[in-house]
Write a structure and sequence with these properties.
The radius of gyration is 19 Å and the shape is globular. By secondary structure, it is an alpha/beta fold. The protein has 11 helices and 11 strands. It has a 7-stranded mixed sheet with strand order 6-5-4-7-8-11-10, with helices on both faces. Helix 1 crosses helix 2 and helix 8 crosses helix 10. Strand 7, helix 5 and strand 8 form a beta-alpha-beta unit.
């Protein structure tokens, strides 16, 4: 049975990509995406059950400074990648979100990062003066935030956030590359709306299937081959419509950090360069592929810069929206 669109609720979907295989080689089988005729967003078909989702993620999936603890070279590599690639990316993302909210300095405003991973992006928000909190479904990530970074954190997924925090708690909620993994997008947005204070902001980064790189690469684009972990791939229209339906106002789409968008393209062009291969195995081939992807990331930057700012079709976008004053902690209708 074909599911409804996770963004606009439309039921008129058409085949988009078929025979899609997991680019990490972790989940066997082939899958397909169907496209919503109303907003253009894509939905994985068949849509997995909630019980299936944890089994889709390999042990090494998100970046951390300790990714290479198993070996001296990989430990050095992870710290080098952090300084050259991840830290500048996280810093650019934090600054872009803060500017979009009108808070170039956090001023002690309370924020929550949903799906925070190892919390390194939150470190950059803390540098800007935000009072930061983390939420992640991986217990070791939560431990790392609490013990190593000194950041309060809770272990739960996005659907449980409203049971952990009071309505109207946060000035800012961020969700970087989380929404495309969620089976109930509109429910997740409504829950985050409830947790925001009036005039609070939500910023959600997602891969955009209507980007130029996605359209050029088709089924080979990295956002597509992240199936089955990517349950959906929104368009700008789909994301902004879902934000507005949840009650948000002043909704806009920002290009994600240049490094992030360039890496999305380079990982589509260079196979075997993913973090799972580099830090989860000891093959020389994966290290060489990682180096090639790193070089490609910087090589494609001029084209990605044009895609982001001249043409307005970024591969990764940050969608921001404000909860209107007078909404209190009530869930949007």
């Amino acid at each position: 049975m074909t599911p409804a669109c996770l963004y606009c609720g439309g039921t008129d979907l058409e085949p988009l990509y078929s025979g899609v295989r997991d680019r990490l080689g972790y989940v066997p089988g082939e899958r397909a995406y169907h496209r919503c005729r109303a907003c253009g967003s894509a939905v994985l078909v068949p849509l997995p059950t909630t019980a299936d989702l944890p089994g889709f993620y390999p042990p090494v999936y998100t970046f951390g400074l300790e990714s290479g603890e198993a070996g001296g070279f990989k430990k050095w590599l992870s710290r080098g990648e952090y300084q050259v690639f991840y830290k500048p990316q996280y810093r650019a993302q934090a600054r872009a979100v803060a500017r979009a909210c009108g808070w170039p300095r956090g001023g002690g405003r309370l924020m929550l990062d949903v799906g925070c991973g190892r919390g390194l992006r939150l470190v950059e928000f803390r540098r800007l003066g935000f009072d930061v909190r983390g939420l992640d479904m991986v217990p070791d990530n939560v431990r790392y935030l609490r013990e190593e970074l000194g950041i309060p954190a809770e272990c739960a997924d996005i659907t449980e956030a409203t049971t952990l925090y009071r309505p109207g708690t946060f000035d800012l909620i961020t969700a970087f590359f989380v929404i495309e993994h969620v089976p109930d997008v509109r429910g997740a947005l409504a829950g985050m709306f409830e947790l925001l204070k009036p005039n609070g902001w939500l910023a959600a980064a997602v891969p955009l299937v209507d980007s130029l790189q996605a359209r050029a690469l088709g089924a080979k684009w990295a956002g597509v081959t992240e199936a089955p972990r990517h349950l959906s791939l929104p368009t700008q229209r789909g994301m902004t419509g879902a934000f507005r339906a949840a009650g948000f106002r002043d909704v806009s789409v920002l290009p994600d950090a240049l490094l992030s968008c360039s890496a999305q393209l380079s990982l589509s062009l260079v196979t075997g360069a993913e973090m799972t291969y580099t830090y989860g195995a000891s093959r020389l081939r994966s290290l060489l592929a990682r180096a090639a992807a790193g070089a490609a990331t910087f090589a494609v930057m001029p084209g990605v810069l044009a895609e982001n700012h001249l043409l307005g079709r970024p591969g990764n976008g940050i969608v921001v929206g404000r909860k209107p004053a007078g909404q209190g902690g009530d869930r949007a209708s």
